[in-house]
Specification:
LpoB, alpha/beta, signal, Penicillin-binding protein activator LpoB, enzyme regulator activity, Rossmann fold, extended, 6-stranded mixed beta sheet
């Protein structure tokens, strides 16, 4: 009797433990405001990418540069000058994609130069590609402009509050002359106050 009662109790504990650890996964709105913590998050990424690309595309200078042609641009990976680990490649990709969708620019992808070089070497020296159909070296189009930027932050903390100020700056440089044709910046401030039950 005691043995049967012990087994029944053990099974009950196992069932309850299994139920209590059950997780529910659901889809959310990718554009919804994310307030999990004070660090740089998805909402901040979307905000800076949208504001910077909107400013670039709407600029009268860019309008004149792209009036009769689609200049070739390369986007340098953004510099992270904050103390946080931030995926700047994701921000760079979002900006490049939105600018490309505007139809005003064409892009060269500098992050894939080595992969392209390997493919061209294979076509030229591998002996597996018809020489009349192999792409020759020295035919790629060079970029005319470089789009680049920085993300920096200032963090202030006291007993009751933490304040983080982010500044995101971007510039478009004419590679031939070195002239900055366009520049803009956007700012984000996030504050976390100490709750009565702790941080």
């Amino acid at each position: 009797m005691k043995k049967a009662l012990f087994i029944a109790s053990a099974l009950s504990v196992m069932v309850l433990a299994g139920c209590s650890s059950k997780q529910v996964v659901s889809y959310g709105d990718a554009t919804a405001v994310e307030t999990t913590d004070i660090n740089f998050g998805s909402t901040d990424l979307q905000t800076v990418a949208n504001q910077m690309t909107d400013s670039l595309i709407a600029s009268p200078i860019i309008g004149s540069l792209t009036q009769n042609k689609r200049p070739v641009v390369f986007v340098e990976r953004l510099k992270n000058k904050t103390s946080e680990h931030i995926d700047t490649e994701s921000i760079t990709d979002s900006i490049a994609t939105k600018v490309l969708r505007s139809g005003k620019f064409r892009f060269v992808d500098m992050s894939r130069v080595e992969a392209v070089r390997k493919q061209l070497n294979f076509q030229q020296t591998g002996g597996l590609v018809d020489p009349s159909k192999a792409i020759q070296f020295g035919q790629q189009v060079g970029a005319e402009y470089m789009l680049y930027g920085n993300l920096s932050s200032i963090v202030k903390t006291n007993e009751d509050k933490k304040d983080v100020y982010y500044k995101f700056t971007m510039r478009l440089m004419d590679l031939k002359s070195g002239i900055i044709e366009w520049a803009d910046e956007t700012e984000i401030r996030k504050t976390r106050e100490k709750a009565s039950i702790g941080w």
